[in-house]
Amino acid sequence: MGLQPTIKLNDTRVIPQLGFGVWQVPSDITATVVSEAIAAGYRSIDTAAVYENEAGVGAAIQKNSVPRDQLFITTKLWNSRHGYDDALRSFDKSLSRLGLDYIDLFLIHWPAPQRDLYAGAWRALVELQRQGRAKSIGVSNFNIPHLQRIIDTSGVVPALNQVELHPRFQQRALRQFHAQHGIATEAWSPLGQGQLLEDATVRAIAKKHARTPAQIILRWHLDSGLIAIPKSVTPVRIRENFAVFDFQLNADDMRELAALDRSDGRIGPDPETADF
Ligand code: NAD
């Protein structure tokens, strides 16, 4: 995967540390936007059944000259498909919309604890990995008790947990649990959906390094050992967000960014109470 940094997963596969997210990218422009991202150098693409743009991601992969084994494609199982058989069927549909014969990483999108079916969904993912059609399997938006439950009931530790994470919501307790169990941490909304780009601390560090605020935040993710999947539909920003491999933050920068963490810094839904 070239010179870009990667993280080794607990199943021995590797994932690029910087990927490209396509939530809210309209389906009719997804192929174009993902092609831009691949041309810019991204090799990891994050979609989901519920984003309704898997076909566009697939179209970009088909028409691209980058070999399939150099791409890392993630998609996710939606909450209404948590039953074991339903999960297997839903995976087949995602695969077919993407036009692929395997997925690099398949995730349970939310635990949806009020449905209480995520442990069965996890068994389906374990089966898909056994079949070799999902090379790596993981979860998204799982809190510690949700993780503990699937580990206890299946004996299989997820490769990765994709959660909301940015300097204003750093998820320290969850990351510590991940580190203890060999689970990689992937940050969704790594830029705080753009809200963090106006932060005075981020802007001051950006000025000092002659970089943009988005580049400073993405560098914080990389220097923190996280996987980040920023989204943009604007070609210049897609490239800007990928141009972060030629500088590093120093200890003072990291300390100042660490201090931005807030207990009420969450932007998206709380996984425990999210009802969809
Ligand atoms: P993000 O933090 O990546 O922010 C994206 C927004 O920031 C853009 O829409 C744009 O407005 C702005 N932006 C991006 N680059 C910029 C730049 N260089 N300069 C100025 N503004 C810029 O937020 P996101 O899209 O919510 O999250 C990224 C990805 O994470 C999603 O596309 C999706 O793949 C994933 N995600 C997953 C979940 C989940 O439940 N698993 C939830 C949300 C997002």
CATH class wording: Alpha Beta
Whole-number count of domains: 1
The proportion of residues in beta strands is: 15-25%
Fraction of residues in helix: 25-40%
Count of DSSP E strands? 10
- Numbering strands along the chain, what is their spatial order in the largest sheet? 3-4-5-6-7-8-9-10
- CATH topology, by name, is TIM Barrel
Global morphology: globular
CATH superfamily: NADP-dependent oxidoreductase domain
The hetero molecules present are:
nicotinamide-adenine-dinucleotide
Point out poorly predicted stretches: none
Mean pLDDT, rounded to whole units? 97
The CATH architecture can be named as Alpha-Beta Barrel
Q: What profile does the largest beta sheet have? A: 8 strands, parallel
Order of helices and strands: EEEHEHEHEHEHEHEHHEHH
Distance between the termini: 36 Å
